[in-house]
Design a protein that fits this description.
The chain has about 55 residues and is mostly helical. Helix content is about 35%, strand content about 0%. It is built from 2 helices and no strands. The radius of gyration is 17 Å and the shape is flat. The termini are far apart. The model has no long low-confidence stretch (mean pLDDT about 85).
Length: about 55
């Protein structure tokens, strides 16, 4: 069975995604990537399932 991977229009994108699995981020890397993130309230039809509404 074959099915497309959403968001990978080219075979090279699949190769890149697979190669990314081997990356190991340091604590500094994680801090730099997560630093700008601001959490927001979950909204939508399934928000109640996570207890946010």
């Amino acid at each position: 069975m074959e099915s497309p991977i959403v968001g990978c229009p080219k075979p090279s994108r699949v190769d890149d995604a697979c190669a990314a699995l081997a990356l190991e981020l340091t604590a500094d890397d994680m801090e730099r990537l997560e630093g700008p993130y601001t959490a927001h309230e979950l909204v939508g039809p399934f928000a109640h399932l996570l207890g946010t509404r």
